[in-house]
Amino acid sequence: MTLCSGGYVIPYYHPAALAFRVMQLDHMAQGRYICGLAAGISPVDLGLLNLDASSGVHREMFAEAVEILIKLWTEHVGHEWEYDGQCWTVKNGGPMPPLGSPHIEPYTRPHPKVAISAVSPGSSTARLAGNHGFRLNSILLGNSHLHTHRDAYTDVAEGRQLHRQGRLEHRSGRVRRRDRCRST
Fold first, then answer.
1. Half-sphere exposure (CA, 13 Å, Cβ side) for 180?
2. Helix pair 124-132, 146-159: axis angle to 10 deg
3. Mean pLDDT by 10-residue block, N- to C-terminus, for the chain (184 residues)?
4. What torsion do the CA atoms of 117, 119, 123, 127 make, to the nearest 10 degrees?
5. Backbone phi, then psi, for 64, in 5-degree steps?
């Protein structure tokens, strides 16, 4: 059995805190964990954080957070570095002699499995998933936008030769398809 978080909505979590939470879950599940990530779409929810959904800032936060998560999962132990983005700042202090690293490394190498949620037509998060070779969770109320998610994902993924049959997931009600879906 594999555990998958439906989608950590990034504006609610600092990527550094989330990275270590996910690593802990990855260890507890002994590699049978998929980290679901989402940019967030609800204007009401984003309003709680004083974010304007129409400005797209939540997507900028999401893209930067994914960079930080990958960096923390792959480079945080024994390396000193700093990330100073438009939305997030992280400073990794490196090892702490004589203790070494105060943090764990991921159980899964090079990092925990990731699934990115997409909702809007031609979703930029679907492109981001394809660019990194992550799984895609296409979460819809119907199938009308599914082909745009597939196209956004595969255009980028095939260009980078990362696409594999079965990476596209569709969840609509009780349906879960892991095959490449056809547009109608």
1. 8
2. 30
3. 89 94 95 94 79 86 95 84 92 72 84 92 87 85 76 78 44 34 34
4. 20
5. -65, -40
pLDDT at residue number 115: 95
Among the listed residues 6, 35, 60, the one whose alpha carbon sits nearest the alpha carbon of residue 111: 35
Taking the chain, what is the end-to-end CA distance rounded to the nearest angstrom? 33
Residue 84: strand pairing partners = 89
Task: Give which of 75, 149, 85 is closest to 115, Cα–Cα.
Answer: 149
Distance between CA atoms of 74 and 149, rounded to whole angstroms?
28
pTM across the whole model: 0.80
